[in-house]
Amino acid sequence: MIWWRTIPARRSFRPEVIAGNVVVSALSDRILCFDAATGRPRGEFQAPTDAGANPVWVSPQLGLVLTDAGGAGSRLVFMKKQVGVSIRTGPEPPARMNQEIAVTADAVGFFMPMYEYSLTQLRMVRFGPAGRIPVEIESSRSVGREKSTEAAWSWFPEKTGFYKLSVLVEDEREKAEAHRLYRILPLTRRSGTEMEAGEKKAPEEKKAGKESEAGEKTDSKEKPPTKKKKKKENRHAEGRSSRTG
Q: Residue 132 pLDDT more than 90?
């Protein structure tokens, strides 16, 4: 025995081998797919009702027989594998330089996918009397993150402009790509920060310093007592001493 797997029913139908995969149905609403060589799960489909026969592969579609809910009859259903990817970002565009942009790729129809992110700089070209369209700048594509099993990535833009944010998702057999346009704005002047508070405080300190300097100059400019004033003060002092004697 090379491998074995349990299925969600005691009675099963003849499995279908499709391009190295084994598709199995049973008296259950779950259709299972396994790797024919290793037995690893490759996918699963939750049907609205129980299967009533073995699956049939009619390329590129898979045929299933599903029983009606009341058991009065059956339906023949053909399914085609859905493969695709979409991008979610936060915050929504536009964003600013050095601001973290959280990017997540939502992929369907892949088995153990790899994710690669890239950026392409765009320039806006006037098209028509009042419209502009984004055009890719040659040789401006750069890889934001190499292939990885992680679907999420954080982008910290370093330059302003228009960009095409892309994600490429692929596995052994499938490949899909999604894009999103992003505009990056320049940094704004910080408001209510310690730096601005310090900048506002500096002129006040200079003003206070000027006032203190002005006070010192005023004190230094006071005129010394004249000779007549000194003589008058001496006479008063002599009069007080004679009365005391």
A: no
